[in-house]
Write a structure and sequence with these properties.
The complex is a heterodimer of chains A (356) and B (517). Chain A is mainly alpha-helical. Chain A has a domain of 218 residues. Chain A has 14 helices and 2 strands, in the order βααααααααααααααβ. In chain A, helix 1 packs across helix 2, helix 4 crosses helix 10 and helix 5 packs across helix 6. The longest helix of chain A is centred in the C-terminal third of the chain and has 28 residues. Chain B has 517 residues and is α/β, with parallel strands linked by helices. Chain B folds into 3 domains: 229 residues, Rossmann fold (3-Layer(aba) Sandwich); 177 residues, P-loop containing nucleotide triphosphate hydrolases (Rossmann fold); 72 residues, no CATH class.
């Protein structure tokens, strides 16, 4: 019989081993899914794990998708480490996209490249505004940040719809709900010609390093962590829980908004109702699979990006529904949560059940 | 009646070779215990020595890995507390399990056979209470009872089933000295009627006074079966901890300026379970240790939170540190002014369980190791060096500065936290329950450090439930009861009786008399 036995101390090994084991189990279940759907599992696995890395261009696409995931997940890691449960990064991402898009739409033929920092700033501020509402309601009225942030996702999506169906609709767009294409000058500079990779990737990678430094090497980050790990100890030390709440939400909102700005001024190039791609929700999984550690999150963002691309390819190559991406994401989080049991417990096999 | 080798003498309860292992600790290792009918048998040991596990095994709440329990010479498999009660084993727990909103009789009724009527239960309760002189009023709602009265209800409830064995777990930890006297009278009468009493405690004086036999546990093993009446406190504590605690030195020190002062401090409770502080006046001067005695839950928590800055609801001007109003200041500002605090909860408040000892220095010692703002850089080497120094100076048993706080035993973590605050060279130090759950050796060390700090001119405030401890280290004593603070009394002039009376809140009018303890 299987028995769980509490470990005297959390296992460091399983802290790293658990996401890897979760990935293995996800792949095994994935194989089973391919077989059940009558597809060759080897082909299926190749689509998800080989196609996205097999060429330079494939890798650049991987980076394009990983960039917003990484940015958002970094901010969420700060939140989750502070015990602030912001699950509405999607909404902050969308609002960042809207405000950034608004600035981008102001550009005309005579605008210089100085507009780009303004676009990014607008995105950051938009995300911060959206997360700030959550902080305000939590701070003033003790409203659950989980519910408020989630509900605000739908509000943000409606704001976006209103803009592209209404004031910002492209007059020459055959009545499609979308803004006009942004001016070329608003395009986030590309890293390599012939790819869609832009400087957003560099910003995200610098962000990961910066976040690591902030969380683990500065007193401000330490205060946030203590607030999350032991609220009474934070109170004892004199760390303000209100400040932690605001900091965590504004940082994560700003990061999500920045991701939104990079997305609309980058690969998308206009505002459409299809800006929300679920990055904000997927980033929650990215943050946890990456152990809320900025370096771990870089890797988990890449993994999650593979699922995105794999899902698209599975649709075109294997004729499988694109929602397979969501299935894999969910499976990964699900198995990760299960595998995390091994951090605090070890499995013991006892031969006889019941008796001593 | 010798309890050790009388196999021919009928034993009421016998525990044979019981072993219970938990993942990281062996709670009981080959434990034997023999209790004759009508015997008051002490089970002595420090926190974590395995007393509670042993009692839970006897009471059927924990299953032993090995060994057996015999009742009246018969081997019994006790699978749960219900079976234990059916066999005549009752237990009064340290934490009471009464419903506050209903009456005493209804509470007792709830735990009994449903075939009885409430009137039956009332009658039986009254009868039992009368026999043992336990004044219990069956119709009073439980929320109106004092702690001592509640314990009497628990005891009456336990007695209703006419137990052959009654287990009491640390029964005096919540009682005033007067209530303890009353309890002892009841227990002696019970024993005289043939009921065996298992009395769990770590208080040596009580055991020597009450018990005729004593089984001492240390680290899960039995270290002795003795007659406590023939033992001294020193010899018992040697069995309990394996060494005698070092003696403390008392010295008279001249006091200096007022360090911490509260003037007319009143704070209304913000939760139904909190205590309201009522017009507290108090001061502690440099070079003295002031103690606050009292049963916990009488406002100590709230008072300390107001002093430490964890609660800033104190009215403006009610708390001052060296003459500066700090009533609205947060703990960091107070710390910068020289006020340090050791809270009673170590894990989760005094230290973050999952962080290293080095990182835990940052809770209260950031000003010593963190760089200048705005970056406020953390230097890992500096925190490790600081932690290392505390570990060395205070003999903390830990794997090193990188050990997680929760990996330390309670006593060692307490030494670490006390050491962290003491080595900050505080001008005012507040310590709550300095030696709770700490072994006797470490307790003596901590008390010694507090005295040393006083001699160096620090103003100290010590809040403790252990009267002995307060008498040992304090120069002056206050008592806290029902949110009010008694006037101070010099320790030299104080007696246990007087402090005990004050614990019931009776200090301003000796004429009101009639302590209901």
């Amino acid at each position: 019989m299987l028995k769980l036995e509490a470990r005297p101390q959390a296992s460091k090994l399983w802290g790293i081993g658990s996401p890897l084991l979760a990935l293995v189990i996800t792949v095994i279940i994935g194989v089973a899914i391919f077989m059940l759907m009558g597809k060759d599992p080897v082909k299926g696995l190749l689509v998800f794990f080989w196609e996205p890395v097999k060429s330079g261009y494939a890798l650049s696409e991987l980076a394009v998708k990983a960039t917003p995931l990484l940015l958002i997940a970094l901010g969420l890691a700060v939140c989750f480490r502070s015990n602030v449960w912001n699950i509405g990064a999607e909404g902050q991402f969308v609002l960042g996209a809207v405000t950034a898009g608004g600035v981008a739409l102001l550009a005309d033929k005579s605008t210089g490249p100085w507009i780009i920092p303004l676009i990014l700033l607008a995105g950051v501020l938009g995300g911060m505004l959206w997360a700030g509402i959550v902080a305000l309601l939590r701070d003033r009225f003790n409203a659950s940040e989980i519910l408020v942030s989630l509900m605000l996702v739908y509000v943000a999506e409606l704001v976006l719809s209103y803009m592209v169906y209404g004031p910002w609709k492209d007059p020459n767009g055959f009545n499609f709900p979308q803004s006009k294409n942004f001016e070329k000058v608003t395009q986030i500079p590309k890293l390599l010609d012939g790819t869609r990779m832009n400087v957003g990737l560099l910003i995200a990678l610098f962000g990961a390093v910066g976040m690591w430094i902030f969380m683990f090497r500065t007193y401000g980050g330490f205060q946030l962590q203590v607030g999350g790990l032991a609220p009474a100890a934070a109170k004892y030390a004199g760390f303000s829980s209100r400040r932690a709440l605001w900091t965590a939400l504004l940082v994560s909102g700003g990061m999500a908004g920045l991701a939104g700005a990079l997305e609309v001024a980058g690969p998308i190039g206009q505002l459409t109702p299809y800006v929300p791609a679920g990055y904000g929700f997927a980033a929650i999984i990215v943050a946890f699979v990456g152990r809320l550690n900025p370096i771990g999150i870089v890797f988990s963002a890449i993994l999650m990006s593979m699922f995105y691309i794999g899902g698209e390819l599975a649709q075109s190559r294997l004729g499988l529904p694109k929602s397979l991406t969501g299935v894999f994401q969910g499976l990964l989080l699900f198995t990760l949560l299960a595998c995390d049991t091994l951090i605090a417990y070890k499995i013991k096999f006892s031969r006889s059940a019941g008796s001593q | 009646m010798g309890g050790i080798d009388n196999t021919n003498l009928a034993l009421r309860l016998e525990v044979k070779n019981v072993t219970k292992r938990y993942p990281s600790v062996v709670a009981n290792s080959d434990v034997n215990l023999q209790v004759a009918p009508g015997e008051i048998h002490a089970v002595l040991g420090e926190n974590g020595a395995g007393k509670s596990t042993l009692m839970k095994i006897i009471y059927g709440a924990v299953k032993p890995d090995m060994g057996e329990v015999l009742l009246d010479g018969q081997r019994r498999l006790i699978r749960n507390p219900k079976e234990a009660r059916a066999l005549g084993i009752s237990m009064v727990f340290q934490h009471f399990s009464l419903f506050e909103t209903v009456t005493v009789a209804e509470n007792i009724w709830l735990g009994l056979d449903q075939s009885l009527t409430l009137e039956n239960v009332r009658e039986q309760t009254m009868r039992k209470a009368k026999i043992y002189g336990l004044d219990v009023e069956p119709d009073r709602p439980v929320h109106s009872l004092s702690v001592g009265e509640r314990q009497r209800v628990e005891i009456v409830r336990a007695l209703l089933s006419d137990p052959k064995v009654l287990i009491l777990d640390e029964p005096t930890s919540v009682l005033t000295p007067q209530a303890v006297r009353k309890l002892f009278v009841t227990l002696r009468q019970l024993a005289a009627d043939g009921c065996s009493v298992l009395y769990i405690s770590h208080k040596l004086d009580e055991i020597r006074e009450l018990c005729s036999h004593c089984t001492v546990l240390r680290g899960g093993k039995v270290t002795g079966h003795v007659d406590p009446r023939n033992e001294s406190n020193a010899s018992l504590s040697r069995l309990m901890i394996g060494a005698e605690p070092p003696k403390l030195q008392h010295r008279d020190v001249k006091t200096g300026a007022i360090g911490l002062q509260a003037k007319g401090l009143s704070i209304i409770a913000d939760s139904p379970f909190g205590a309201t502080l009522d017009n507290i006046n108090f001061e502690v001067r440099a070079g003295e240790i002031v103690g606050i005695a009292g049963v916990s839950g009488n406002g100590q928590q709230e008072f300390l939170a107001a002093l430490s800055g964890e609660c800033t609801r104190a009215p403006v001007g009610s708390i001052s540190l060296f003459g500066n109003d700090i009533s609205k200041r947060n703990p960091r500002v107070r710390r910068a002014g020289g006020l340090h605090f050791v809270p009673e909860e170590r894990l989760g408040r005094g230290a973050v369980p999952t962080l290293s000892l080095a990182a835990n220095t940052l809770l209260s010692r950031a000003s010593d190791v963190v760089g200048k703002p705005p970056l406020s850089w953390i230097w890992p080497k500096a925190t490790a060096t600081l932690a290392e120094g505390i570990i060395k100076r205070f003999n903390v048993k830990a794997a090193g500065p990188s050990a997680q706080a929760k990996s330390l035993s309670g006593g060692n973590l307490q030494k670490y936290i006390v050491g962290r605050e003491i080595s900050a060279n505080p001008k005012v130090l507040i310590v709550s329950q300095p030696t709770w759950g700490v072994d006797v050796g470490a307790a003596a060390q901590i008390r010694g450090e507090l005295l040393k700090l006083r001699d160096e001119g620090c103003a100290l405030l010590v809040v403790s439930e252990e009267l002995d401890e307060l008498f040992e280290v304090c120069d002056r004593l206050h008592v806290m009861a029902k949110g009010r603070l008694s006037p101070s009394i010099n320790t030299a002039d104080a007696t246990v009786e007087k402090i005990g009376e004050w614990m019931s809140g009776l200090w301003d009018s000796a004429s009101t008399g009639a302590a209901h303890a």
